[in-house]
Amino acid sequence: MCPHCQSLDYKAEQLSGRGALYSYALLHHPRNPAFDYPVLAALVDLDEGIRLVSNLVDVAPGDIRIGMRLEVAFEPTAGDGSVPVFRPARSAS
Amino acid sequence: MSGFGGRAAIVGVGATEFSRQAGRTELRLACEAIRDALRDAGLTAADVDGIVSYTVDPVEETELVRAVGFQEIGFSSRVPYGGGGSMGTLLHAAAAITSGAAEVVVAYRAIRARSGATRFGGAKTAASPTSGHSGTTAMQWCMPYGVLTPASWMALNATRYMHTYGVTSADIGRAVVQLRAYAETNPAAWGYQRPMTLEDHQASRWIAEPCIRLFDCCQETDGSVALVITSRERAADLPNRPAFIAAAAGAGLFEQEIASDHYSRDLAVMEGSVALGRRLFERSGFRRDELDAAMIYDAFSPILLMQLEALGFCGFGEAKDFVAAGSLAPGGALPTNTNGGLIGEGYIHGLNLVLEAVSQLRGTAVNQVPDAARVLVTASRTGAILTRD
Ligand SMILES: [Zn+2]
């Protein structure tokens, strides 16, 4: 339900895939065999105003900066699905 | 003022040993702690007509009734929010007693956080049904990304806090050092006779960089704590000095999640604790500087600093200075977690902090605050102010 108007209607929207890094953590321990460590965990604020938990890719841990511009990429996950992850934005946005 | 005004009181406490391998079930641990709490209170199982816990506890109420020998339970409830609900047991108990719904309430928590089927700090790889209350369905949005553990959920918020206010790992470590000093002299604590310096803290390995090192984490612990709560009138006839409930409150806000709590706009502020502090101090009529000690939920040390700010003991961003001044230590502005906290003593999911508050008010604490008369107990979104008189 929409918590603002209690509507039960919904529709899919195309998002820009662009946003900024709100927070992050390099996860070292404990380890789960499904992941490579450290896990680069991120909170991404999309430009549309939605916050996502995700991973950072194509960035060295030392280059991570809160507020950095990000763009979406997709990576395979368990099953046949893929999940959105984020890399430093390559084009001005 | 709309608090309980001391019309309900904790009159008995009981606990098992805190260990890493209890070697017995949660049901048995709960039974032992409740038996001891009733003896401490000078009451019997037949006196009890209310039982309260919080949602993650594995002990089924009906089994507990049959095991301990409660005769007729008229009131039972569970508080949501995981460990954040631990102090809500006092709210529920006091509400039941002052409304007449119950006369004698037992609050309990039994846990095998270390030796249980899954370690409490370990990875969760399946979303819990909401009814389990060990997390909400929002947790599923963390799992594809390897954000599987309590430390990882906490770290995403703590990094933002540190970034916003310029807090360093050493700033946080100074709080841990003060808690561990209390633990060092507490025979019940994991940290008993285990000194820890800031250098030790800074040399401990990263669990989640840049905010949570090994020594920033509470101890996964096996054990149980039980409390007996009744009315002021009945308390007057019982052997121990009561710990009166001056005020108790909860605050669960829109957009808050239980553990994977990443969706409030400003994660550098624990807004649930801001609301909780407002309710507690309004209801009790006390000022912040009238408290003699505080017991604040420290599953991971960054949230101790964040709660000090949210509860109003210092300004936002100022907890690092408040801590650096030695405020948490003996003689400080707010002696805090004087049992060593969940970090230094052990993690009975928060309820052992109430045990310590009661010891302080009885004057029997291992690290006694001189003449302690008013003590705060909080767990991020539930809490109470307890008084001696
Ligand atoms: Zn709407």
Task: Write a brief caption for the model.
Chain A has 93 residues and is an all-beta fold.
Write structural notes for this entry.
The complex is a heterodimer of chains A (93) and B (389). Chain A has strands spanning 18-27, 39-46, 51-55, 69-76, 82-88. Chain A is mainly β and 93 residues long. The mean pLDDT of chain A is 94. Chain A has a five-stranded antiparallel beta sheet, with no helix packed on it. By secondary structure, chain B is α/β, with parallel strands linked by helices. Chain B has one domain: Thiolase/Chalcone synthase (Peroxisomal Thiolase, Chain A, domain 1, 3-Layer(aba) Sandwich), CATH 3.40.47.10. Chain B contains twelve helices and eleven strands. Chain B has helices spanning 26-41, 61-68, 88-99, 150-165, 169-184, 198-203, 232-235, 271-284, 301-310, 319-324, 341-344, 352-362; strands at residues 8-15, 50-54, 75-79, 104-112, 206-209, 212-213, 222-231, 243-250, 293-296, 374-378, 382-387. Chains A and B meet through β1, β2 and β3 of A and α4 and β5 of B. β1 of chain A pairs antiparallel with β5 of chain B.
Count of discrete domains of chain B = 1
Mean pLDDT of chain A: 94
Order of helices and strands of chain A: EEEEE
Rg calculated over all Cα atoms of chain A: 15 Å
Helical residues, percent of chain A = under 10%
Largest interface: A-B, 29 and 35 residues
Large-scale geometry of chain B? globular
Q: Give me the side-by-side strand order of the main sheet of chain B.
A: 3-2-4-7-1-8-11-10-9
- CATH fold topology of chain B: Peroxisomal Thiolase, Chain A, domain 1
Radius of gyration of chain B: 19 Å
The number of E-state strands of chain A comes to: 5
Low-pLDDT residue intervals, each spanning 5 or more residues of chain A: none
